[in-house]
Amino acid sequence: SAFAPERRLSCRRSTFGRPVSGDWKVALPVNRALGATPYAMANLWAKRSASRRRVVSLTAAALLFVFPTLFRIGRDHRANQQRSADAGDLFQPLYRDLAAALRASQPEGAIILLASPNVSAGVSYYGRFQSLGTLFWENAPGLRAAAEIHCAESDEEAWRLIRARGVTHLVMLSAAPFVGEYFSLLYPTRPIEDAKRTFGFRLAGNPSAAPRWLRPIPYRQPADLAGIGGNASVFKVVPEQTEDQRLFYTAVAQAARGEAAAAEQLFLSALALLPTDAQAALCGFAGESVYEQGADALAVRMFRRALQLSNNADIANLTAWIMATSADPAVRDGAAALALVNPLAQRNPADPIFVSTLAAAYAELGRFDAAVQAAERALALVRQGGTDKQSESLLAQRLATYRARRPWRQ
């Protein structure tokens, strides 16, 4: 097939039916001593005078409400002074970041999210999305639908249910997929081991083996949120996706997670499915996509494959740029970068992009006088246009760096 990738609370209910009195249970963080206090106070109540009853009431209130409140205030005050955050609080910025990733994958139109209850509530709040699996009491049908999809025994059954509910996106946190809880809610009498045969369990354990109709969305957790919730896997429902596209997007998602070797193998598998005249384009798309995910070494390898298949000036220039400026010293190769970009700059002396890359290659080799000359020429070319102030500012920063006899780093 032709390859054309897109570019650039714990609350528990015994049933899913109507609410029954006493059916909801909420766990409260009260220790045994405090839990026993009301009963002890009740015994004292009948034996004491009115004045002593007031003392007993005030004591009970202090034990149950005042002291715990003061403890929490003191704890939070200390945390603020230390500029530290509780791990549980960090889920909220993670949910906000996930919501942004979902909307970026679908800038227009309604999004209907399938996830665990907490992820559903948090991501839906920040993204203003619809979601199925929240724990609001009036959402029993949606909670049941989410449980049924997660607990489907085959991908075909999961697809049928997803299509019926209009789900557009899925999010899985590896540390809290909620599959076991969904299974217990749906099948309270079945052994929990049976949950390992479900769609949700398979997807949480091996997101790279998602069915063809799920397109992985490349997602890297922000550095200050790394590890919160484990690994986050994000998917978009794309029923028309071909196998080569599935392999491609799965590879990009793996690169985003830092799994470059596995990503490269999937790219090669996708290449094997394409006719020869489409392979150069895939390699170029692959290099560009993983470069955006910070996988510089893999990007260079995929670009070099593309150049072996087709001579493309833009790919050659970007390859040279990465080798001249990457923050990864294992990727940088000033001599190879200069060999790629010098012919381009000579053939296109009025193109500031090629000339700027030439300056970066000279700087990586320590040839700063040549780098300054090339950077001055690139800046002058942009200023002649007079409309691209952002590029003008960036080229001026690079020129200042070379004048300070330092190479440019991304």
Helical content stands at 55-70%
What's the gyration radius in Å? 29 Å
The poorly predicted ranges are 1-37
Query: In what range is the share of β-strand residues?
Result: 5-15%
Average pLDDT score: 86
Number of helices: 17
Distance between the termini: 36 Å
Structural class: mainly alpha
User: Looking across the biggest beta sheet, what order are the strands in?
Assistant: 4-3-5-7-6
Number of strands: 7
Quick overview:
By secondary structure, this protein is mainly alpha-helical. It is built from 17 helices and seven strands. It is globular, with a radius of gyration of 29 Å.
Give the helix/strand layout.
Blueprint: E1 11-12, E2 25-26, H1 32-45, H2 50-81, H3 91-105, E3 112-114, H4 117-127, E4 130-131, H5 140-150, H6 155-165, E5 169-173, H7 179-186, H8 199-205, E6 214-216, E7 232-237, H9 243-256, H10 260-272, H11 276-292, H12 296-309, H13 313-325, H14 334-347, H15 352-364, H16 368-385, H17 389-403
Helix pairs in contact: 1-2, 3-4, 5-6, 5-7, 9-10, 9-11, 11-12, 12-13, 13-14, 13-15, 14-15, 15-16, 16-17
